[in-house]
Amino acid sequence: xxxxxxxxxxxxxxxxxxxxxxxxxxxxxxxxxxxxxxxxxxxxxxxxxxxxxxxxxxxxxxxxxxxxxxxxxxxxxxxxxxxxxxxxxxxxxxxxxxxxxxxxxxxxxxxxxxxxxxxxxxxxxxxxxxxxxxxxxxxxxxxxxxxxxxxxxxxxxxxxxxxxxxxxxxxxxxxxxxxxxxxxxxxxxxxxxxxxxxxxxxxxxxxxxxxxxxxxxxxxxxxxxxxxxxxxxxxxxxxxxxxxxxxxxxxxxxxxxxxxxxxxxxxxxxxxxxx
Length: 275
What we know:
By secondary structure, the chain is α/β, with parallel strands linked by helices. Helix content is 44%, strand content 14%.
């Protein structure tokens, strides 16, 4: 891997919580950071704060609402136009079990179940749209911030129109991230791009956790350390297609090891996103 000061790193959902702290940590290590956010006002404030705190002026903003596939494509086009290289994508943005809608079923701009769309499909499309740039920048890394909360995908009802719950939707979307990571790792083998997923820490003090259960268990720094490790640890050069619980390699839900299920998810995702 290249020295961090030579790398350009995109972090989605980086205006607060885990993404915000990962962005600051990597900016402090002199990487060029692209902070993704949905709100320009909030995004610009985040960029200014990270620059001031770290002394690193190479912190940029990219905007998109990940509930819209049109905007996801626009985000990818913006990255391709503005940056000559992209060394890492940290797919961190997501919504939890309760907010928005107090856990009620909602749909994205494209008419897809909202948690599946934002937590998974947006990252699938963004990664596919940026894959050539990552290949040209190799060695490169893709990191999926997933969860230990995983439930199997019902391919007869991916949008959970029957028996919906926010927990089920969130957990399905997180397993989808992991399955995509394993599948993509196989598809880009030999291209110099590695793909790994992780559960950063259990119930960190983030908005998602506070809305869901009211209190944290793990320190945010624990999740930051585990995530930054997958981004920057040279000992993980060439390590790909893995799932980590914190800093320990672990086994995801058994459906992630089902090659036919992964292929089915990949094909369904291509259809849903128009790739």
